[in-house]
Design goal:
- The complex is a heterotrimer of chains A (81), B (251) and C (115).
- With 81 residues, chain A is an all-alpha fold.
- Chain A has helices at residues 3-22, 26-46, 50-74.
- Chain A has a domain at 24-75.
- Chain A has 3 helices and no strands.
- Chain A is flat, with a radius of gyration of 14 Å.
- Chain B has 251 residues and is mainly alpha-helical.
- Chain B has 11 helices and no strands.
- In chain B, helix 5 runs parallel beside helix 11.
- The radius of gyration of chain B is 23 Å and the shape is globular.
- The two termini of chain B are 39 Å apart.
- Chain C is an all-alpha fold and 115 residues long.
- Chain C has one domain.
- The termini of chain C are far apart.
- The model of chain C is unreliable at 110-115 (pLDDT under 50).
- Classes of the chains: A mainly alpha (81), B mainly alpha (251), C mainly alpha (115).
- The interface between A and B is medium-sized, with 17 and 23 residues.
């Protein structure tokens, strides 16, 4: 594992976490949440927890993003705060 | 109020960062988590006791299979809860017709054909992940999610009705029940054969295997049950979320 | 032999990164949705294929069976991406077109036609 690489991923992770809370467009927020899950998956893989990384990639970045987008599609798109 | 929340978050974050300085180093072999009696047993003995090279799978589905059984039940319950919240009445006036040929013409041709090429490959990969969880990362949960994602891909690139023609809501729920039944049934078989609940080694009495191999194959059976439940629940959740619980239209 | 492999591998990786950089600039600088998707879709697929080919070449340093299996898996990923990349770009642009978000036409011919 290369620690500079991990540090960059961690920076992006924190940025994605803050962005997904700050953005008022809920569709963008769910996409950014998908990015967050994928970065988390990279970090798990870099730490050697491959099983967890696989689960995170399948559930977090795959299925839950689709569920969030489906939910946004059937409710309203702008958040009120 | 907002500023107060921000201050609280920053204070908690700073405290957590300060506390993380006391953690053992990454991969430290003598940290309490790695050096306790239990984990030393797993690390040293799991291969000779279960003949499963992937230690994570051995711990997940053999030593701690109670946990995994109830995780499966949690997913099953979550699916039922989402369906009971969202599922509305089916509009009886519009007859549901088989939409296989019709939707192919209506939906996007390029998308549909690519999806036709990809879905079998994705499902094969999902089965590989389920069956190969002993040797490489993977297992019932991941494979089930990938299989469910392939069904969701069909629903996205054709129409929801196309996927529902393949696996109807009733069938999905029956499959989810079957998954939990397989898991607990293997456990009960072990009890009937005169051992503890989910102690797979006793399966060697009925299968032509040694006790150690029986544990490995018991893990495979359990993972199959998990995969059934997860696949069905993933698809049922998507079908309900995307169509407001009407099972028609969809994204 | 190793030298040639190294040079080819480095060359492919560099080309991939340059094309990827082009995709990033295109997404940021192009004026409307369609040209942005053009840059992102084309460059993303091409650069990913280049990068993966470079990695596959790097694996070919010693031709043992596990390494060759890794190379085979990388080629599967390349096939997968060359199928899904263009299709997802097409799906996005099709969705935008169906929502009546027509591309803005700014060249002179279109103006003459309207007059």
């Amino acid at each position: 594992m290369i620690w500079q690489f991990n540090l960059i991923i961690l920076g992006f992770l924190i940025m994605a976490a803050i962005m997904s809370l700050k953005v008022t467009d809920l569709l963008s927020a769910s996409m950014i949440f998908g990015i967050y899950s994928f970065l988390m998956c990279l970090l798990w893989a870099a730490m050697g927890a491959v099983d967890v990384a696989f689960t995170e990639a399948a559930v977090g970045a795959g299925a839950s993003t689709v569920f969030l987008v489906a939910t946004v599609y059937s409710t309203k798109r702008k958040s009120s705060d | 109020m907002r500023a107060l929340g921000t201050i609280a978050v920053i204070l908690t974050g700073a405290l957590l960062l300060y506390a993380s300085g006391d953690f053992p180093a990454w991969g430290e072999p003598y940290s309490p988590a790695n050096d306790s009696r239990v984990s030393r047993h797993y690390i040293l003995k799991s291969f000779e006791e279960t003949s499963v090279p992937n230690m994570v799978t051995a711990v997940l589905a053999d030593y701690r299979s109670y946990d995994t059984l109830f995780e499966t039940v949690v997913i099953f319950t979550a699916g039922i809860a989402i369906i009971s919240i969202l599922r509305g009445p089916v509009d009886k006036r519009v007859r549901l017709r088989r939409a296989s040929e019709k939707s192919l013409r209506q939906s996007n041709l390029i998308l549909a054909q690519t999806c036709r090429l990809l879905v079998p490959v994705i499902q094969m990969f999902a089965l590989y992940v389920i069956a190969h969880g002993h040797h490489s990362p993977g297992g019932g949960f991941q494979g089930g999610v990938i299989f469910g994602a392939s069904l969701i891909l069909v629903a996205l690139s054709f129409q929801l009705q196309t996927a529902l023609d393949r696996i109807s809501e009733k069938r999905a729920m029956i499959l989810a029940g079957i998954g939990v039944l397989i898991y607990s049934g293997i456990g009960l078989t072990c009890v009937l054969l005169g051992s503890n609940f989910l102690d797979y080694s006793v399966l060697s009495k009925v299968l032509p295997l040694s006790a150690i191999e029986a544990r490995s194959y018991g893990i495979l059976g359990v993972e199959t049950g998990v995969a059934f439940t997860v696949t069905a629940i993933m698809f049922a959740i998507y079908a309900n979320l995307s169509s407001h619980g009407r099972m028609k239209g969809g994204l | 032999m190793n030298m040639i492999l190294n040079i080819a591998c480095l060359g492919l990786l560099t080309i991939g990164i340059i094309i990827f950089f082009g995709a990033a600039i295109g997404v940021l600088r192009f004026p409307d949705f369609y040209s942005r998707m053009h840059a992102a879709g084309l460059c993303d697929t091409m650069s990913t294929i280049c990068l993966l080919m470079g990695l596959a070449l790097y694996q070919m340093h010693d031709l043992s069976l596990p390494n060759l299996l890794v190379v085979g898996k990388i080629f599967f990923i390349v096939a997968f991406i060359s199928l899904t990349g263009p299709t997802s770009t097409h799906a996005l642009i099709h969705a935008g077109y169906q929502r009546r978000n027509r591309p803005p036409i700014r060249d002179s011919k279109a103006k003459e036609g309207s007059e």
